[in-house]
Amino acid sequence: METKIKQVTNCGYCEKQLHGRKGKLFCDVNCKNNFNSRIRARSREQENELFPIPIKKIKNNHRILSKYYLARLQKDKEITVKKEELWELGFDHRYCTGATLESNRNLWKCCFDFCWKEEMNWLTLRFDPEMNTKYSY
């Protein structure tokens, strides 16, 4: 007489015992989604570690500008900010996605849709999505 041993399987996310069809991996859709979200988050972390430093700096610059100045900036309006204020937040003015030299010899550096002009201890900020695409030096 042969006895069949029933193999007990557990959910791949919450470790609850599974019931139902053979080959089932998760107890419900939420566990499946959470499991896959965790895998994607880990792969994004690994991907971010592989990014070169300039890309990390540009992403950080954009995050700082959008978080702290987007509400105060309107298209074609300019605000002046102390360089030190931005440096304390981690902003690095050397990293940008484009630059435009205006006819009056002002160099505007851009980080996607935010642009800045450097003066002694100040940065003049402008929100101008079109300026980054000019590429006139």
Walk me through this protein's architecture.
By secondary structure, the chain is α+β, with helices and mostly antiparallel strands. The chain folds into two domains: 1-50, no CATH class; 53-133, no CATH class. Helices cover 34% and strands 18% of the residues. It has helices at 29-50, 53-69, 83-89, and strands at residues 78-82, 98-101, 107-111, 114-118, 122-127. Strand 3 (107-111) and strand 4 form a beta hairpin. It starts with 28 loop residues before the first helix and ends in a 10-residue tail after the last strand. The mean pLDDT is 85.
What is this entry, summarized?
This protein is an alpha+beta fold and 137 residues long.
Strand order of the largest sheet: 1-5-4-3-2
User: Which class best fits the helix and strand makeup?
Assistant: alpha+beta
What portion of residues belong to β-strands?
15-25%
The DSSP helix count reads 3
Mean pLDDT across every amino acid position = 85
Q: How many domain units?
A: 2
What sequence of helices (H) and strands (E) makes up the elements?
HHEHEEEE
The tally of beta strands, per DSSP, is 5
Gyration radius, in Å? 26 Å
Helix content: 25-40%
Distance between the ends: 87 Å
- Model regions low in confidence, pLDDT < 50 over at least 5 residues: none
Overall outline: rod-shaped
